[in-house]
Amino acid sequence: MLREIRPAIVLLLALTAITGVAYPLAMTGIAGAIFPARAQGSLIEKDGKVVGSTLIGQEFKDDKYFHGRPSATLAPDPNDSSKTVPAPYNAANSGGSNLGPTSKALADRLKEDVDRLKAENPNAAVPVDLVTTSASGLDPDISPEAAEFQVPRVAKARNMPEASLKQLVASNTEGRWLGLIGEPRVNVLALNLALDRAAAK
Amino acid sequence: MTMIGWLQIILFCVIIVALTKPLGWYMTRVFNGERTFLSPVLRPIEAGIYRISGVDEKREQHWLTYTVAMLLFHVGGFLIIYGVMRLQAVLPFNPAGQAAVAEDLSFNTAVSFITNTNWQNYGGESTLSYLVQMVGLTHQNFLSAAIGIALAVALIRGFSRASVRTVGNFWVDVTRCTLYVLLPICVVYTLFLVWQGIPQTLGDYVEATTLEGAKQTIAVGPVASQVAIKMLGTNGGGFFNANAAHPFENPTALSNFVQMLSIFALGAALTNVFGRMVGNQRQGWAILAVMGVLFVAGVAVTYWAEANGTSTLQALGLTGGNMEGKEVRFGIVASALFAVITTAASCGAVNAMHDSFTALGGMIPLINIELGEIIVGGVGAGMYGMLLFVILAIFVAGLMVGRTPEYVGKKIEAREVKMAMLAILVLPLMILGWTAVGVVYPAAVASMANAGPHGFTEVLYAYTSATGNNGSAFAGLSGNTFFYNLTLASAMFVGRFFMIVPAMAIAGSLAGKKSIPPSMGTFPTTGGLFVGLVVGVILIMGGLTFFPALALGPIVEHLAMNASQLF
């Protein structure tokens, strides 16, 4: 058995060097050369400043923007580091609400949000993704229904015709891959950037 | 449930079955030491590794030596992870300035990664430096996967060989698995994932100013290279806290689909390796059929439950299923499918929060792990776990007809059955034992995030996941406490090694037996009767053991939900 000691040490170090150092570093080099923008995190710049990543949702509260889904991400409490406080779309600490199907806290939150949205747009059914928090808290997408639901509010705030906004939503809707895999979706940040451009014209 | 949802599920199953044979063919060549198309590139590296580490690749090991070598390897792996976590503050590749990780969390994480569990009490982007992610986690993702596969191959050799004392050479099996199977696939896979949008950079976290003018710190890192092996090796430990739900770990519906395939690919292929090594591929297909029956049943229940939603959602007129804790790009079907896959295999990556699943939708992942993760299972671990159940099923069949049971030419005798039972009894001991402690010990009770039966399920799920070396969680439970760090680590340790050592003892015992040709009285193990028998044994064993605990958790919660009772 003693002769197994040397391989246990040397082989472990050799494989660590290959899989833990050479492999990730080589992949970083190759990926950076072939897909430089994506390897850096698909960042979007506007006027030379990073405004976010196409893949990472961000918080929108203003009426003149389309809103993303509620986010349950947290951040350390600035007053007491042992506690956490809500910090929606905190892209340095992803996570979901983890509230279960019989949670009273969840039921209360859902009811409040549904009531608020019904008051905002009484003419359409409230889309479920617009009141539920995502698993990562950073979901960049909403369903096409959730985007359309918000059209009247944005149109009013921007003083733009609803028809042109609906068209904007349609042109920013991504379908299923090959018509089969995944779900149709609208990237909120991309939609809002397109919205800003359309409004500027 | 929709037609297009079911089409995605069917497509997934078809591709897995299609991959099983070619991958099984390739892996069989690798473990038989034959030449492959990669040999011209990799053979010199392989030979060099043997030379510096003093391994004689021709010399095979007795099962006990094989097992000791495996254990020694784990000790080394543990020390590396624990060391880099404790020292990360003074080591390079730490752009976010992460402080040293606490002793108990480092201990838990080190045990978690050497046992292929990858339970996340750590927060990924908020706790670990890039060096820990690469040298600690990525590297151990490779090794724990390679070790699992090596052990399964050793057990398969026990069945396929006759009258020999050895089951292979551990060092050679691990090296060949890493170099010829895992690494080449991961190189291609990583590039695919970056193409889909996963970052692969050593740069700092990005500071963005959002359209509304708020500050957003975006965590990045060498993510893609780790995600590739985390999925392929059924490890499941995330680079980020939200794991495969995080858009940077799983950016598109396509990346999600490929990740699901990669969780099952090697585990399914091992059934074919088994068939090839014992000389009849139909033996392998029969085992895959057992897995398939249980898998499809699980998917159907979870998909139905999640698409149905909860009474809370229904009361508010919200349709479209239970989207709490799910991502829009995956929707209901890809989230439900992923949850069943990740727990059927011992992966434990999640693309939706299991804690927010409906009671029945969340019960299926729990059951999958409690059955021993033998539905394809963890790479290697699923195969040897399944073979333990096959031994029991064959034993039961033998009892029914009063004949010494045999399987693929080997007599199954008292020693094998005892060892199989020992391995299988570890699950209830750790899962139910620790859950019982967790629901009465005050410091443990305080960790529950949800009240009522759901809180109980959180604790049950935690020990189930740890013992099964799965690593997924009902993540509301605050696991990063002294109590949970230590008790979960003990469950992971016992769940891994008290399964492996009896399995290896069986391998050694079988390898030494004579091979007997099938006769008139041999129970055929390639047909529907055998598949039904094994499925029955698995369900009865699991049902008798865990039904009472499930009744206290998800089942009572489902009834409460239907009565609109909230907690």
Describe this structure in words.
The complex is a heterodimer of chains A (201) and B (567). Helix content of chain A is 44%, strand content 13%. With 201 residues, chain A is α+β, with helices and mostly antiparallel strands. The model of chain A has no long low-confidence stretch (mean pLDDT 94). With 567 residues, chain B is mainly α. Chain B has a domain at 379-562. Chain B is built from 18 helices and six strands. Chain B has a two-stranded antiparallel sheet. At the A-B interface, α1, β2, α3, β5 and α6 of A face α1, α2, α3, α5 and α6 of B. Chain A: Belongs to the KdpC family. Chain A: Its main location: membrane.
Fraction of residues in H or I helices of chain A:
40-55%
Q: What structural category arises from helix and sheet content of chain B?
A: mainly alpha
Rg of chain B from C-alpha positions?
Answer: 23 Å
Percentage of residues in strands of chain B: under 5%
Please tell me the overall pLDDT of chain B: 93
Strand order of the largest sheet of chain A: 5-7-6
Number of domains of chain A: 2
Overall mean confidence score, pLDDT of chain A:
94
Q: What is the radius of gyration of chain A?
A: 23 Å
What is the number of helical segments of chain B per DSSP (H or I, 4+ residues)?
18
How is the topology of this model organized?
The complex is a heterodimer of chains A (201) and B (567).
Chain A: H1 5-34, H2 36-39, E1 43-46, E2 49-53, E3 74-77, E4 80-86, H3 104-120, E5 141-142, H4 144-158, H5 162-171, E6 173-174, E7 185-187, H6 188-200
Helix pairs in contact in A: 4-5
Chain B: H1 3-31, H2 39-53, E1 61-62, H3 63-87, H4 103-114, H5 130-160, E2 166-168, H6 170-196, E3 206-209, E4 215-218, H7 223-232, H8 253-277, H9 281-308, H10 311-315, H11 331-344, H12 359-370, H13 381-401, E5 406-407, E6 410-411, H14 414-438, H15 442-445, H16 453-467, H17 482-511, H18 528-562
Antiparallel strand pairs in B: 1-2, 3-4, 5-6
Helix pairs in contact in B: 1-8, 1-11, 2-6, 3-4, 3-5, 3-17, 4-17, 5-6, 5-7, 5-8, 5-13, 5-17, 6-7, 8-9, 8-11, 9-11, 9-12, 9-18, 11-12, 12-16, 12-18, 13-14, 13-18, 14-16, 14-17, 16-17, 16-18
